[in-house]
Amino acid sequence: MSPTRRLPPDFSHSAAFPLFAFDAAAGRGWVLHFEPQDYRRASFLDQRALDHRKVSGWELSIAEIEAALAPPEPGLPLHWIFHIGHCGSSLVSKFLDMLTGVLGLREPLPLLSLAHGVADPATQRWQGPVLRLLNRGFGDTQAVVVKPTSAVTAIAGRLLAQAPGRACLLWIDLRSWLATMLRDEGLRDDTLAGEPLRLAEFGPEGLPPASGDGARLARLWLAEQLRWRRLVADPALAGRLIDLDFAEVLADPAGQTARLAVHYGLTVPEDWAARIADSGLLQRYAKDPRQAFDADVRERELAAAAQAHAAQIAQGLDWAGAALETLDAQALRARLGLRG
Fold this sequence. Notes:
By secondary structure, this protein is α/β, with parallel strands linked by helices. It is built from 16 helices and ten strands. It has helices spanning about 35-40, 60-70, 90-95, 110-115, 120-125, 125-135, 155-160, 175-180, 185-195, 195-200, 215-230, 245-250, 255-265, 270-280, 295-310, 310-325, and strands at about 20-25, 30, 55-60, 80-85, 100-105, 145, 165-170, 240-245, 285, 290. The strands form three sheets. Strands 5-6-4-7-8 form a five-stranded parallel β-sheet, sandwiched between helices. A three-stranded antiparallel β-sheet has the order 1-2-3. It is globular.
């Protein structure tokens, strides 16, 4: 890493210098040197974003970063795609990348560190610098759209209180989400390992107890729905939030992504539908474009998972149905994906 004195003069307003990660205990952060194409190709702004070429950078103290950002400059519009995890958020983010002037940031590590260190003052000191450093672009950037890791949705309220942009919650129905999560043991285990963070807001009595993987996953899904409902009801966030069912995106990619873009104040071109069709994004796995994956493949995989894990899916749906009655949240029943 280069010494701090070599920080470029445009550091405070250029996305060419992302904060890659920070160590709150040590008070140090790592800033890299990116090109626009590094962002476009990255499905994750973690180590995987560095595999295609050698990337240089700097190691800085938080005091040095704060000094480099002072005095604060007016930033770009900063918008959010929050999501429940494995629900098409990478695809939606890459669609928005196709709009003129949009810089898409997918799963920056510093946001995940903020979420996991929500009770740590040393970590929370980084929140202001992290948001300020996300709020930069290149010469043609008109807005930044951040798609955090799903666990970061747990601190959506904190982020929205400090960042004045707009946000969306992307989700899929509970039945489909359970099939998605249960089809892969690693995915299931990683998701369940996040229970303390995702449920902390609700306290020990906030949600009914859950036993078994299907019920525990259903509780996490419901927690995100309830969290978003609380945020939408907050007068301070009036008009800034919408939510979007990924099934509607698959049914009408151009119309639903245009709706989201308009929510963010972005301009949608007249040939938007043709651009989406020509992009090839609907035929590839968004997180790995080398892998063929379309709506038909998705449906076949979900159907196979639903059959293989029918008992746990039924368990989760039963838990959710009972929980909605206990919590007086029957309006969410239509989102469970119940049949008949």
